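Changelog note: in this version the structure field was regenerated for every chain. One regenerated record is shown below for reference.
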Amino acid sequence: MKIRTALLTVAMTLGAAWVWGQNALWKSWEAQGDTLYRAERYAEAEPFYSRIINDAVKSKSEMPYAVLYKRGVCYFSTEQFEKAEKDLNVVVTAAPANFQGRILRGLIRQALGDEEGQWEDVNAAIDLQGQNPNLLRWRGSLSLRQGNYESAKRDLLIVRQFAEDPEVEVNLAVAYFNTGAPDSAFWAIDRGIEINATVMSLYLYGASFALQEERFEKAWEYLQLGQRLDADNATLLFYQGAALLELKRETEACRCLAKAFAAGVDDAAGYLTQHCWSFEE
C-alpha cells in the first residue's frame, strides 16, 4: 500500500514537529536507531528508541513524541500491533492534528481488525489532509465492507479521477450493483478489464452480477475470459456450472460443479444433488 510505504520514511522528518530537550546520550541512541531505521532494520532500531522513551519516563522528562512515533513504526513493521497501537495512542492524543499519526494508527487498527477504529482515523486524516486519493480509496473500501455503498461510490468516483486502477473499478462495480445500478456495475467491470485484463476478480464479479440479473450469456462471456487466466479457479468453475445449467448444458455444468466441489466450494453440493446426482431406492 502506498500509504504504508510513505509512513516508513516520514518519521525522519518529524523531529521538528516535537522539540524536546535532548542530552548527549539520547542523541547518540537516536542516531544509532535512525541508522538502522533507514536501513529498514526495525527490530534492531526499536531498542534504541525504547531506551530514550524509558529514560524519559524514568526521569519524568517531556515525552519525545517523534521517537515514540518511530518506535510505533518499528512495532508495526515487526507485527507487534498491540504495542504499536499503545505508542500511537499517546502520539495521537498529544498531537491530534498530525495526520501521519492518524494514518499509522489506522493501519495498525486495520491489522488488528478494528474497523470502527480505522474509520475514526481515516476520517480524521482526510479532514486534516483533504482529498487524498489513497485515503479516499481506503475509506471507500471500508464503506463497502460496512455496506455503506453510496458513501463508497462517492469516494471511489473521486479516486477514479486520479488513476486508472482495476481494483477501484471492481469496488465501484460492487457499489453500483448494490445500489440498484447493474448496468453501471457492468460498465465498471468492463472498464477494469480494459485497464488490466489479468485481474481475475473482474471476471468473477462480472459473472456473479450477470447470474443474479439472469443474464446468463453475459455471465458465460465473463467466465470464458476468466478461464484464460486460471481454468482451475474453484469459484470460476462453480459459476461456470451455474451458468451452464441455465444455458441447458447439463453435462458440462455437472462436470464443472463436480470440480468446484472437489476444490472446496461447498455451495456446489446443492446444485450437484439437485441436477447431477440421482439415487435409486
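Spot check on this record: The mean pLDDT is 90. The CA atoms of residues 81 and 108 lie 6 Å apart.
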